[in-house]
Amino acid sequence: MDGSESGSASVVTADDVLAHFGVKGMRWGVRRSEKISSGPVEPTAKVSRSTGVMDTKKTRGGEGFDAHDDAKVTARSKQIAKKSGTQALSTKELQDLVGRMNLEQQYSKLTAGDGNAGLKFAQNLIASEAKSLMKGKKGPAVVAIGAALSAGKKPGKHRG
User: Fold this and answer.
1) Domain limits at 49?
2) What is the 3-state secondary structure (H, E, C) of 102-117?
3) Are 147 and 157 in contact (CB under 8 A)?
4) What is the CA radius of gyration of the chain?
5) DSSP string covering 35-85, please?
6) Fewer CB atoms inside 10 A, N or C side of the chain?
7) Residues 93 and 140 occupy one common structural domain
8) How far apart are the first and last CA of the chain?
9) From the centroid of its chain, how far is CA 60?
10) Residues 94 and 136 occupy one common structural domain
11) Regions of the chain short of the pLDDT cut 50
12) How far is Cα 110 from Cα 126, in angstroms, rounded to an integer?
């Protein structure tokens, strides 16, 4: 009588123990949610320099919005200009590209000022205090900070 026929002992094979729960083609450190786009992706055409064959470049708008056709054309023109130079673009394509890029630059300059007010204030304050200290004087911020620190001290007790 061998051990494989006994009711209490069973033979466990590697096929019973090992199981693969991965996805074919999965890469370490890449989550599935990164591969799946949040919104629709519209491809735009680009030309491969070596083969001359049209390829696709993905562009996408934010928050689930599709990229506008103008943005797709701009992305295509940028790709062609980057790979083949501006000589590969027609005059109309180059004008459209430069116009779109200028508008994007103006927009970013207009919207960038909104979040920098605190930074500009802090930079101006530090610069004015540094000038005062270099002249051997205490600036208003240094005086205010010193007063706040001295007001927080308790008389007669040593903090150490």
Assistant:
1) 34-112
2) HHHHHHHHHHHCCCCH
3) no
4) 33
5) HS-SS--EEEEEE-TTT--EEEEEE--STTPPPPHHHHHHHHHHHHHHHH-
6) C
7) no
8) 82
9) 14
10) no
11) 1, 34-37
12) 25
Q: pLDDT per residue over 44-76, tens digit each?
A: 555 555 555 555 555 666 667 788 888 889 999
- What gap in Å lies between CA 107 and CA 111, rounded to an integer? 6
Q: Is residue 6 part of a domain?
A: no
**Distance of alpha carbon 132 from alpha carbon 124, whole angstroms:** 12
Q: Cα–Cα distance between 33 and 26 in angstroms, integer?
A: 12
pTM reported for the whole predicted model:
0.37
41 in the same domain as 106: yes
Half-sphere exposure in the Cβ direction for 23 (13 Å, CA):
7
Question: Does any domain span residue 7?
Answer: no
Residue at 1 is within a domain = no
In the chain, what are the helix, strand and coil shares in percent, each to the nearest 5? 50, 10, 40
Rounded Cα gap, residues 78 and 113, in angstroms: 27
Spatial distance between the Cα atoms of 57 and 62, rounded to a whole number of angstroms = 16
Q: In whole angstroms, how far apart are CA 140 and each of 9, 118, 122, 147, 149?
A: 86, 18, 14, 11, 14
